[in-house]
Design brief:
With 295 residues, the protein is an alpha+beta fold. Helices cover 52% and strands 10% of the residues. The chain has two domains: 158 residues, no CATH class; 126 residues, no CATH class.
Amino acid sequence: MNSGYRLTPFHFLEKFDFILEQLSENRKNSNLDAAIIAWCNELSLDEIFPKVSQEIIANQNLWIQQNKILKNTLKLYRQLLVITDKKITGGIGNSFNTLDNISSKDFYHNIQEVKQKMNTKSIIIVAFVLTGVGLLLYLLNKKGSNSNLQSKNQTTNYSNYILPIEEKYILALLIKSDRYQDLIHSLKNNSRLQPEDSSKLYGATQGLWIETTSKFEQSQIKQELINCKTVGTTSEYDVHFVTIELDEDDSRFYPNVNPMDRRDAFIDLGKRSPQVTVSRRLSCKAYENTEFYSR
């Protein structure tokens, strides 16, 4: 690693920004493979795990296809930028502008197809993500094949590290009771979202909210499901809460999303036939103080 920053007590983001600026000055790092090698050199990975950089590059296309890796990492990094002094991270934050202009479908399908739209900093940040993912998968593959994870010069016992369990997400939907009785009956009878019901569910949705399972359990929506009683006298304003468990987050269910992207998200959801839970009939007051935002 470069000695220019090793001895300086930089904050993590300052150090990252410093390295990013240095790598951005080298024009060859606008190539994704070259940027991955640059990160491997900065982290001295090949000294610890011989030829690991070659394996990361050889398998990067497989890992890029896993859109949640990049999506969640970039989402986390945006959150870091929000709470960090702009004087420190402003240069990095600006590099995300291009990413925001890339359609989610193209970006998640294959980042190779859209990397020409990225500036050098963005490519280097993506390379940083892929390098970290590649190293982790390299170690997991070695462990799976009963290989020794330690190089001759390394004393760290990686078998002591416990990988975090990835949390699931809950998509909560708000739909009117009387207006969509056929759809409600179908969801209740099948207990899963059928492909033919996905576009209907999009049209019926008045409000929605997506979060991790743990946050959903603490939400006002969950409290209303637990505490609200079934309506006595029905009203045309009565509603149902529909909850769907997802294996991963999907930004197309976030607030202020393009309607076409939102509709595509529902269509894709129907193709996976996730489990659906429909609440009892509730008064319109049930959602007044909840987290639902407009479709």
